[in-house]
Amino acid sequence: MHGPPATRNGEAPWEELVTAALLGTARRPPATAAGREAPLALLDAAAVATVRRRAGLRPGPAARRPEPAPEDPRPALPAAAARRLASLLADRSGAAGGGRRSGSPDLMELLPQWLAAACAHGYAPPAQALPALLDAARGRTDLRPAALAFAGPRALWLARLNPDWRFALRAAPGGGVAPPDAADGAAVLRLWQEGLFAERVALLGALRAGTPAVARELLEGTWSTERAEDRLMFLDSLRAGLSAEDEPFLERALGDRSRNVRATAAELLSSLPGSALAGRMAGRAAACVAVDRTAASPTLVVEAPHECDPGMERDGVAATPPTGRGERSWWLAQLVEAAPLGVWPGRLGGRAPEQIVALPVADGWQGELHAAWCRAAVRQRDAEWSRVLLGSPSAPEAGGPGAVSLAERARLLTALDAGERAEWVAGFIATHGLSEAFQLLGVCAVPWAAPLGRAVVDALDIARDAGSYPWSFSGVMGLAERCLDPAEATRLDGLLAIPDEREDASPGAGGYWAEAFQRLVTTLRLRAAMAGELAPDGAPGPSGV
Amino acid sequence: MTEQGVRRTAEEVLALAPDAASRKAGSRLGAAGPWSGTGSGEGTVWGLCEGSGSRPYRTVVDLAGTAGPGYKCSCPSRRSPCKHALGLLLLWADGEGSVPVAAGPPDWAGQWLAGRRERAEHRRAGGGATASGSADSEAARRRAERRAERVTAGAAELEQRLADLLRDGLAAAEQPGYGLWEETAARMVDAQAPGLASRVRELGAIPASGSGWPARLLEESALLHLLDQGWLRRDGLPDALAATIRSRIGLPAAPEGPPLRDRWLVLAQYDTSDVRLTTRRTWLRGAESGLTRLLLSYGAAGRAPELSLPVGLALDADLCVLPGAGQVRAVLGEQYGPPAPAAPRPPGGTTSEAAARYGEALGADPWLDSVPVTLDRVVPAQDTDAGGAWQLADAEADSALPLTEAFRSGPGLWRLIALSGGAPVRVFGECGHRGFTPLTAWPEGPGDAVTLC
User: Fold this and answer.
1) Cα–Cα distance, B227 to B195 (Å, whole number)
2) In a domain, A334, yes or no
3) Residues A279 and A265 in one domain
4) Do the chains contact at B359 and A55, CB–CB below 8 Å?
5) CB atoms within 10 A of CB B44
6) Is there a contact between A104 and B9 if contact means CB atoms under 8 Å apart?
7) Strand, helix or coil at A172?
8) Do B229 and B245 contact (CB within 8 A), yes or no?
9) Shortest CA distance from B229: residue in chain A
10) CA-nearest residue of chain A to B87?
11) Which of A243, A479, B97, B272 is the most buried (most CB within 10 A)?
12) How many CB pairs under 8 A join A and B?
């Protein structure tokens, strides 16, 4: 604010009063001390000056107003949902101390699915909630994509004004500026040639979604002048919308100076079953595996490659194995992984995948071969091979360290559709219990399908009856709170009572289990309420909560 | 009275919490888990909460009474409201049917509620009829005289202290540190002049407040000197100014004049606290009178002040203003019903009018730090010349008020900027010599009040 312009006649200017006060009237007596003690006269004058200055304060000139924020066309959040958002965000600070053992829901853990549901409904957040939303996204990178999508255009406008929220601009395509329309060739070319690295990656990603060929041509144009680490990132963005049209370019990239670029190009080509590289790999892999008809029953025999020739190396096979691994099995694994799975029925006597996997393998090669097929099934997203490699969920070896590890099973599951995935995991839990199930549950669609949810609840019930403590299952319990269908809550009512303590049970376990189930039910009810608030007219909104 | 009228939102409930720890603990209890036997009706809520003890805690909350909200819980916590009361209210606020509407409270809750209502009734009936025998008033007069003598002695001592300060120079004030000021403040407490004591304490903090402190110290010393002088010469002053000085010194005053009944819209409510005391300020605006009034309520450390009026509600009640020139402080008289949601927004003016309003108010009360004003059509803008500090600029004129430093460093700033989105907003706040402190804002289009404090 601006003070009154000048001092009235006969009064000492304010600066003089301050100087006199700072030095003390003993050292610098004021000029007008008529009849009063010098310090008091100074205070008198200062009081008059202070009140006069304050009373004369006027607004200063206005600074440049910020550009108006872009319109958010989405409908406003229903009032109850807006209050819920405020309470979810307010709990952020308290989340750390919440702890597994307390009887009430961990609100912070529910924020991700609340955001996903709100996005799916297409609501806009209340403007005043944006700072808390951005702060939450700043603290948790896993929240960022959903939080920023929900936060919408005004949040990017806001992030440009506050350095704390820069991350939002980095995360948004084009640094918060909409990328040019793909049809505007000149603008695209200019951004590609002059943009920052992040802007160029974003541009490539955006183009790849709609017009993959345009993106590839753009990249080809400047390919030879890009730095090696940039080439790697750009090449990686071709993963989206990959098609046979990309093959010639990828073939050329196999001759790249950088080993990482070569390996990525080879990996992309191998996931195109019709590519020349896939064909070459198929030939090499097929030469290594055959059916031995001389044996009493058909058996697979494996003859691993004796050398890694330059052609193999060019096609992305790494010549040097990691320490502790034999060269030949290492090369074999890479060949089988990169070969299209479609080659095997023809090579192995017209057998279906199921029969192939069931064949015995000679000389202890089974583990190596099946593991490579697993990786191939995941890379090529082949549901049939995934299904046969997973095997029956109730098979005894499915629970233990068999040919296929749990991590590989989890990856194979992602190639199946959601319903089949849930069935398989439900069957696994019914046979093997929960102790190994955490990783598998993590790949199942949320909310869990009814059979899966029931299997988890039953397994928890069995674990309780077996007399263990609930915190041995805290991981699964936490997942269940977030992923179980809220409609299952009623089925849990019978588990809430504290059972009579049996002699073989752990002391007090019954009470702890009742508490844990109580918390589960409370969380499910809360999620049902949250979903209801987002669809206030009773319309069943997109699932997710 | 409808159930809707008293049901609070989760934020409103959390605003009742005495401190952050209670807020957190209360949020955890705001779920159906530990609760049983819950019920509500006519603005009261009750329930049993499973705690660490063998018997569940009995929790009752009364929000509808005319004496502000009341809490009763059998837990040993000394906080009020305790976490159980907060949790119960949150559960109720959720509106998920966890707290059903019941015909009447159970006995254990009913007894307390009936007792509370009766006491409130009794207070109202007996309020005006305190025995005013001449012996009592004579004793009160003598007590007041003795206190005035003490204050006079304190004011004289403070004048001496200020004179010493100015004689030796403010530069010396940096050295002795806080201790000396604390001692002087304690002397003012002894002299029964709490207003002087708190000003002295603030004086002690100025030398550590960054560049420009000598000018600020001189300003505040001069105003303290002015207050001392006002007290010492109060007999020669107009009555209104003398009353202002008495209230600034911290002497008790009784409300004056007839009570003013109006629909008082709650514009803002915020707490400030020091080690001893939580002070809650509630700004009200009369729908018919157009007057802006301030209610103060206090809570000892760890207890929320009794009065809680969430922003956006309106209250049909009497207010009695305290004596003094330009006085906005009032005390709540009779309430004619529970607070109800209300839509109206206060009318606003320009930044120039706001600054002029403060200047005029200083004429009646030179110790005033700020006045309540509503700005209409202002835009938060960043002043790159002033180191990027934010200001509120008129949408139509080339003038702007700087935002106070305290506001700029708080979370309210970004809520205000987000709400505005570069468009004009209406803002209620306090305008003074340190700048403008926004408290509540309204978007240009339809939308509820957004609290910023």
Assistant:
1) 10
2) yes
3) no
4) yes
5) 24
6) no
7) coil
8) no
9) A44
10) A104
11) A479
12) 217
Range of the domain at A32: 14-55
Which domains, ranges and CATH numbers included, belong to chain B?
Answer: 3-124 (no CATH), 136-249 (no CATH), 260-341 (2.40.50), 351-451 (2.40.50)
Select the residue of B351, B381, B397 nearest A66 (Cβ to Cβ): B381
Task: Say how far residue B188 (Cα) sits from the centre of its chain.
Answer: 24
Total number of residues shown for chain A: 545
Same domain, residue pair A426 and A539: yes
A536 and A503 housed in the same domain:
yes
**pTM value surpassing 0.80:** no
d(CA A19, CA A27) in angstroms, rounded, equals: 11
Distance from CA of A52 to the nearest CA of B (A): 9
- How far apart CA B101 and CA B87 sit, in angstroms, is 17
Give B216→chain A minimum CA distance, Å. 9
Per-residue pLDDT of chain A (545 residues; tens, 9 = 90+): 666 654 555 566 888 899 999 998 888 776 665 667 888 999 999 999 999 999 999 999 999 999 999 988 999 999 889 988 988 888 654 444 444 445 567 777 888 889 999 999 999 999 999 999 999 998 888 888 889 999 999 999 999 999 899 888 876 554 444 556 666 778 888 888 888 887 788 888 888 877 888 889 888 888 988 888 889 989 988 888 888 889 999 999 998 888 889 989 998 998 888 899 999 999 999 999 988 888 778 888 898 899 888 889 888 888 889 988 889 999 999 999 999 998 999 888 888 998 888 888 888 888 888 889 998 998 888 889 998 888 888 876 654 445 567 788 888 888 888 889 999 999 888 888 888 888 888 888 888 888 898 899 888 888 888 878 888 888 888 888 889 888 888 778 777 777 666 666 667 777 788 888 888 888 888 888 888 888 876 554 444 44
Q: Which helix (H) or strand (E) holds B437?
A: strand B435-442
B433/A54 Cβ within 8 A: yes
**Interface test with chain B among A14, A28, A51, A524, by most B beta carbons within 10 Å:** A51
Tell me which chain A residues have a C-beta less than 8 angstroms from the C-beta of B415: 128, 131
Q: Which of A18, A62, A522 sits opposite B381 (nearest CB)?
A: A62
Instruction: Pick the residue of A19, A28, A54, A165 with the most B CBs within 10 A to test the interface with B by mutation.
Output: A54
Total residues belonging to chain B: 453
Do A262 and A236 fall into the same domain?
yes
Q: Which chain A residues are closer than 8 Å to B443 by Cβ?
A: 127
At position B109, the amino acid (one-letter code) is A
DSSP-based three-state secondary structure for A387: helix
Residue A349 lies in a domain: yes
Measured distance CA(B374)–CA(B350) in Å, rounded? 8
Q: Which of B387, B386, B431, B438 is nearest to B412 (CA)?
A: B438
Task: Report the complex ipTM.
Answer: 0.79
Q: In Å, how far is A159's CA from the nearest CA of chain B?
A: 10
A135 within a domain of the structure (yes/no): no
